[in-house]
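Why should sequence recovery work at all? Because a backbone constrains its sequence more than one might expect. Tight turns favour small or flexible residues, buried strands favour hydrophobic ones, and helices have their own preferences. The token representation captures these environments compactly. In the example below, the structure is given first.
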């Protein structure tokens, strides 16, 4: 099977797990705070990947020599971006609903190509820019501008979108230097859980008893949406560049809105449904346009 097709399947699967996890995130803060939830899910993600690491990558890494300082620097950097994105996203759910949190998270589709182009001079296929524009319009159709509390939550998750964007860009750069996705994901989850555990101790009443009360939500968000999903993200970014893959990841907003409606009764109006359709069309266009151009015009 074509490597890019496998990466595409990984990216879509990752988006599904991320999107459906918003329901678990929304339900998982009855007894614990946002930092505690984030620390718990990231640590569970780390635990999930340990057997995969020893089975698939441990011997390969042991046989080669790498700069430990370089690896640790990238892992800490990725963990800061990942834990920051998670924390803003989780905190926003105290003020806004699942659909809004998910849709404003995917504004990283606007930020990723800007970072790639302006900071790293990476060539971006022309189809990315109209796709980003349509995604932004779709996102605005899902907002509630007349609700101050919701706008606060939306603002928090929009800040988190910058963390997600930098995580996507720097993960691609790290994979070119150290192409071991399981190790990267496992290390990022471990360090990220430590980073978010510190404020949970300082500001929240974290305890094993309270964490166990949210075990079902933590297991879904930790094992599937953190461990497995971020592993799928790393595999997808092996063969897909940051800007187009970010648009595929934006499908998480669509999945979150749909499952928020089905499982949490967070109603989607006709306007919001139209916004979801626009995002879907943008994702499809961003993937088909480069293929069409290469096939018929011999260019990217």
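From this structural description, the recovered sequence reads:
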């Amino acid at each position: 099977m074509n490597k890019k097709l496998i990466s595409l399947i990984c990216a879509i699967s990752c988006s599904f797990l991320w999107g459906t996890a918003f329901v678990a995130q929304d339900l998982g803060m009855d007894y614990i705070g946002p930092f505690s939830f984030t620390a718990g899910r990231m640590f569970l993600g780390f635990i999930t990947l340990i057997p995969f690491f020893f089975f698939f990558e441990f011997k390969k890494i042991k046989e080669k020599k790498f700069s430990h300082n370089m690896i640790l620097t990238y892992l800490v950097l990725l963990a800061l971006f990942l834990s920051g994105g998670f924390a803003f996203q989780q905190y926003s759910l105290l003020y806004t609903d699942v659909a809004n949190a998910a849709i404003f998270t995917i504004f990283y589709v606007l930020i990723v190509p800007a970072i790639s182009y302006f900071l790293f001079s990476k060539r971006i296929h022309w189809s990315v820019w109209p796709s980003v524009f349509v995604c932004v319009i779709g996102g605005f159709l899902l907002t509630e501008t007349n609700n101050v509390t919701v706008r606060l939550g939306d603002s928090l998750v929009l800040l988190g979108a910058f963390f997600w964007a930098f995580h996507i860009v720097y993960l691609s750069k790290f994979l070119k230097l150290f192409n071991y996705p399981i190790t990267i994901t496992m290390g990022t989850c471990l360090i990220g859980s430590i980073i978010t555990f510190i404020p949970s101790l300082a500001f929240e009443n974290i305890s094993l008893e309270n964490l166990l009360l949210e075990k079902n939500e933590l297991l879904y968000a930790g094992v599937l949406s953190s461990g497995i999903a971020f592993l799928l993200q790393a595999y997808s970014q092996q063969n897909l560049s940051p800007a187009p893959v970010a648009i595929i990841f934006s499908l998480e907003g669509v999945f979150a809105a749909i499952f928020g409606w089905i499982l949490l009764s967070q109603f989607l109006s006709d306007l919001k449904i139209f916004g979801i359709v626009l995002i879907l069309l943008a994702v499809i266009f961003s993937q088909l346009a480069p293929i069409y151009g290469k096939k018929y015009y011999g260019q990217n």
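A few observations help interpret the result. Confidence is low (pLDDT under 50) at residues 296-300.
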